[in-house]
Amino acid sequence: MGLNDTPSANRVHIGFFGRRNAGKSSLVNAVTGQETAIVSQVKGTTTDPVYKAMELLPLGPVMIIDTPGIDDEGSLGELRIRRAKQALNRTNVAVLVADAEEDAGDGAFSGGAGGELLRAVEARHIPHITVYNKSDLLPEPPAAVPADALYVSAKTGYHIAELKERIAALAAAEETKFRIAGDLIHPSDFVVLVVPIDTAAPKGRLILPQQQTIRDILEADAAAVVVKEFELRETLERLGKKPALVITDSQVFAKVSADTPPDIPLTSFSILFARYKGFLLPAVRGVRVLDKLETGSRILVAEGCTHHRQCDDIGTVKLPRWIRQYARREPEFVFSSGGDFPEDLSSFDLVLHCGACMLNEREMRYRRECAAAQGVPFTNYGVAIAHIQGILKRSVAMFPHILAELED
Fold this sequence. Notes:
CATH topology of the largest domain: Rossmann fold
Strand order of the largest sheet: 2-3-1-4-5-6
Structural class: alpha/beta
Largest sheet: 6 strands, mixed
Low-confidence stretches: none
Radius of gyration: 24 Å
Strand content: 15-25%
Helix content: 25-40%
CATH superfamily of the largest domain: P-loop containing nucleotide triphosphate hydrolases
CATH class of the largest domain: Alpha Beta
CATH architecture of the largest domain: 3-Layer(aba) Sandwich
Distance between the termini: 45 Å
């Protein structure tokens, strides 16, 4: 995607799932109107989930996911099935594809691999529709069709337009309920964003959370003033009036807090993204584990993307160092990135997650619920840094229900 494209995390993720040779890839191509997926009569042509960012009417920006067959075989087949199931964790709308000729009725998803898939979809509360592809091979489509099913033909285009409408209706309930910062400010306000430019900063651009926050501020008809951490004090003195909010990169939280007068609200990009992804309250509760760490306590440091790590990387270097200094103990740190979030978290005492700008709200909900189901506290970088530096209450003061949690 280009710099001006809608971020992946803000796109509705539409996943196509089913058995091999049910016509998933053909259906993806018919729905998108593009040769998005490779089509073949050979079973198992799709060997890994294929992600395609595009505009799809009437939805707008979407991420189409074409997945391997959930009935694949052999050791490689098991890996492909696992990858297909992992795609469920970020899917907003699931299209369950069956072969209309071979799987009449509900046979495709009543037992076996299909039944297991349906149970996984329902367990995650993913809106879904069952689609019987290749209906052109039937003498005529059934007269009575369940409300949550549709007979289509990728070959002839039969009911493809209706399928898009059904997907759009299911996706409507999946819209993110939170703003990043726009609901915290008013038109004509201005917000100061503190953005360090150091060796870890990407050359020639701002990182995604900073870009998205600026856009959200502008959509609120407010102004964004962007400064480096060493320019903040002078900028605040020269502005002439107090900003409605100061938002900082968590890595310079301590300095920015010292340079921002106490009557000016202050928070971080990471804290705002915890709220945006729907887990700020669990993150504030989970961070208390840092006060109880022992030598040997295990912390999973999870990042939503893969990137080239700098010599003083925030996740693998700075945070472990700060936590060791704060706890005065030697916990063990385990690292994961991208889609490699472990399903078994039972051996960990804490999950410490990044800001998750590259993950959609549904995947973050899945990761958080995995931790909760196994009794493992969950927090994120910004909340942890604010807690370590003694400024967490100040950093969440604009959220009264969160502040009340800290004052109990």
